[in-house]
Amino acid sequence: MPLNYFYTMPKKTNTSHSRVKSHGIKPQETKEDEGIYTPAMARFILSFIIPILGLIFSIYALCKIKENKNLKGREYAFAGLVISVLIMLIIASRFL
Asked: In terms of residue numbers, what domain contains 54?
C-alpha cells in the first residue's frame, strides 16, 4: 500500500511553463503542509455510526499520528475517541 494512501496529498500548484518543459528542468518543490491524516477524519465520522469501531480506530489513528509527527488530524482522532466513549456511555445507561 503506498504511503500517500494514509494522508491527503498537498495541493499542487500549476508551475509548468513551456520553457521548463522543453529543457526537462523540474521546478523546485517546496515543502507544503502534508495534509490531514484521512483515516482520522473517517474515524471521527465512524464514531457517530458505530461507536465501538470508532473507539478502536480512533486509538489506532492517534498512535499513527504520534509515530509520524508530519501527519495532521490529531484533533479529529481525539474527538472521535471522546464521542465514541460518550455514545457508548449513553447506550449503556439505557440498559442499566
From this structure: 36-96
**Domain assignment of residue 54, yes or no:** yes
Q: Tell me if the pTM is above 0.70.
A: no
Q: Rounded to an integer, what distance in angstroms lies between the CA atom of residue 58 and that of residue 82? A: 9
* Per-residue pLDDT tens digits of the chain, which is 96 residues long: 455 555 555 555 555 554 545 555 555 544 445 566 777 778 888 888 899 998 998 899 899 889 988 888 888 889 999 999 999 999 999 988
Q: Domain count of the chain?
A: 1
CA distances to 18, 20, 30, 94 from 50, in Å: 52, 51, 40, 17
Domain presence at residue 45: yes
Cα–Cα distance list, 65 to 17, 26, 48, 58, 93 (Å): 37, 31, 21, 10, 32
